[in-house]
Write a structure and sequence with these properties.
The complex is a heterodimer. Chain A is built from 9 helices and 5 strands. In chain B, the strands form 3 sheets. Chain B has an 8-stranded parallel beta barrel. The longest helix of chain B has 22 residues. Classes of the chains: A alpha+beta, B alpha/beta. Chains A and B meet through helix 1, helix 2, helix 4 and helix 6 of A and helix 3, strand 5, strand 6 and helix 5 of B.
Chain lengths: ~250, ~290
């Protein structure tokens, strides 16, 4: 290590964790404080903008303490500012502190997804069909989830959390998050069966009818006709909300 | 396609919150003097959705300069070559003619990026180290870059030279251009008690690609913090006037990162830059009969 780099290492170690690492020898204490404040405040601002609900629930002091731990314990390998909140989500996954609500990491993930999808690059061609389906014709179209989406499964009803409601039951919670053609990020809560159907859409290319037949096989206690009927209703609704798109080619 | 010569006159550092106003007021008289914009690649690389659409609009309507924040030219970890290739592609995709960075560092070995600009100690060793990384950057990008004189608050006890000597040594050793921040010269002159005019006298004018102007926050009599959150004060305007006289007129851009007033108010400072440029040019342009 070069001489000036040893100084740099001491400099940044102090900025990241001043409680453990003293400032480099011979530097002005008051001036060093300017760096301590600016550097951490900027970092904290980049993080906290993404997690308003979690910050509200934990309070700014506890939240800030977590951000500080993240700042000195994580590896930040991306120079892109938009990736900073993702580092915080990764950090929270490793936190099992007793004083944190059990849902902390999952709530943070839920809050982060909105930012992530808002900025995600969409390489899928724009949906060529502007058809509105009102009935069974949709059955014969290949249906796909829209270009920018995520199917999420949480152990808590994270979408219900707020400062006023800071406890939620442990209950499997399924969500579809997606971005519309006018760049709005939308959330839809799903039941377990719809979640399963959309997982099929994610992994296989098939028509609505084929998907629903396959789905019906996994729930033998329901008549196939009923699964198709309710499934079609669900798909029509999701199509209307621009969460799914159709292939313009009809299947044979 | 934007050329290097399109980066001229007076410009503005683009903050995302200014975009709606910019799109609305583009082409109207209050924005008449706005000739170029600056963006940080770290805010726009891999940006999809609404941001991609905004970037397309920006590139279509203004010449753009890229001013990087996280290359960490003075950093201890290896230069992020993968990121540099992303920058190269970004500059090519959006036909951006200029990329500048800071003469500082923003990363460490222990944790990676720290996301803020920190002062490099002014040593011979550091000159060689930073210059080598600038050359490597220019090789990868296959173009010249400019480095900006950074503002700072702490003097490294191990420094062997003053700031201007360090800058000049790096520029010469790397053979790169200079992005001259007038406010940073002023801020550092107060923070470290040197004469900003004497500093400018030693700047190699031929290396300047463009300049920055900004406001700062006075914390104490001898401590200024480079917040980009205030109006530009008169001594900094005077320094710009002197720079134009001494070094010739160069494209100059206003940076405003916090407490951002409405665009027409910001434009008053951009207009003032343009006026100073025109005045300096009027004084220094030789008349035709003199040339003849």
């Amino acid at each position: 290590m070069l001489t000036f780099q040893a100084y740099q290492a001491a400099f940044t170690a102090h900025l990241r964790q001043p409680s453990l690492h003293a400032k480099p020898a011979g530097v002005d204490a008051k001036r060093m404080r300017v760096y301590r404040e600016i550097v951490f405040n900027n970092f904290e601002a980049s993080v906290s903008a993404c997690f308003p609900v979690l910050r509200d629930i934990l309070g700014s002091r506890r939240f800030s303490k977590l951000v500080r731990q993240c700042f000195f314990s994580q590896q930040f390998n991306s120079p892109l500012f938009k990736d900073i909140p993702g580092h915080f989500v990764t950090f929270l996954r490793t936190q099992i502190a007793a004083d944190l609500p059990a849902y902390t990491a999952q709530l943070a993930h839920y809050e982060w997804i909105e930012l992530l999808l808002g900025q995600q690059v969409d390489n899928t061609p724009p949906d060529s069909t502007v058809e509105q389906f009102t009935g069974p014709t949709l059955l014969h179209h290949v249906v796909q989830l829209c270009g920018v989406h995520q199917l999420l499964h949480y152990d808590y009803a994270v979408h219900l959390l707020s400062k006023k409601q800071n406890t939620v039951e442990t209950i499997p919670t399924f969500l579809l998050v997606y971005r519309t053609p006018v760049y709005k990020v939308c959330f839809i809560q799903l039941n377990a069966i719809t979640y399963q159907l959309l997982q099929q859409l994610q992994t296989q290319t098939a028509t609505s009818h084929q998907h629903l037949l396959q789905l019906a096989q996994t729930i033998p206690h329901l008549p196939t006709e009923a699964v198709i009927e309710f499934g079609l209703e669900t798909l029509l609704s999701l199509h209307q909300q621009q969460a799914i798109t159709t292939d313009s080619l009809r299947s044979k | 396609m934007a050329q290097l010569t399109d980066i001229r006159g007076a410009g503005l550092g683009l903050k995302r919150e200014l975009l709606p106003q910019l799109m609305q007021q583009h082409g109207q008289p209050p924005l008449g003097q706005l000739q170029f914009l600056e963006i940080a690649p770290e805010n726009w690389i891999q940006a999809g959705g609404k941001y991609a659409a905004e970037l397309d609009w920006l590139v279509a309507h203004y010449p753009i300069a890229c001013h990087g924040l996280c290359l960490s030219l003075g950093g201890p970890d290896p230069l992020n070559v993968g990121f540099l290739h992303q920058v190269k592609q970004f500059l090519a995709d959006f036909e951006i003619p200029l990329y500048t960075e800071h003469l500082s560092y923003c990363s460490d070995i222990a944790n990676g990026y720290i996301y803020d600009l920190l002062p490099i100690p002014f040593t011979e060793e550091a000159v060689k180290y930073v210059a080598q990384r600038i050359r490597q950057t220019q090789d990868i990008l296959q173009r010249r870059i400019a480095v900006e004189n950074a503002s700072f608050y702490v003097a490294a006890p191990l420094s062997e030279m003053d700031e201007i000597s360090f800058i000049n040594a790096v520029l010469a050793e790397a053979d790169c251009d200079l992005h001259l921040d007038i406010n940073n010269v002023y801020v550092n002159s107060v923070n470290f008690g040197f004469d900003p005019y004497a500093f400018l006298d030693q700047i190699p004018a031929q290396r300047i690609v463009y300049g920055h102007m900004a406001g700062h926050l006075q914390v104490e009599a001898n401590l200024l913090v480079d917040t980009h959150g205030e109006a530009i004060i008169d001594p900094v305007w005077q320094l710009l006037t002197y720079a134009y006289t001494k070094l010739g007129v160069f494209p100059t851009l206003l940076e405003r990162d916090s407490h951002i007033p409405p665009l027409p108010v910001l434009m008053q400072e951009v207009d003032r830059i343009a006026t100073l440029q025109q005045q300096a040019q009027a004084i220094h342009t030789p008349t035709l009969d003199k040339v003849a």
